[in-house]
Amino acid sequence: MNASNPPVKPEPKTVIVTGEVRIPVVACGSRWLVVDKPCGMSIHNDPGGDLCSLVLTAVRAGGLPAVGHDVPAIHAAHRIDRDTSGIVMLAGDPETLAFFGGQFAAKAVHKHYLAVVHGHLGGQHTDQDQGWIDWIWPLTAAAAGRSDPMGKGKRMPCTTRWRTLAHSLHYSLVECEPLTGRKHQIRRHAKLAGHPVVGDRRYGSTRSLAYLRRHHHFNRLGLHAHALTLRLPGDAGTTTFQSGGLPEAMRQLLEMDR
Question: Is the pTM of this model over 0.90?
Answer without folding.
Answer: yes
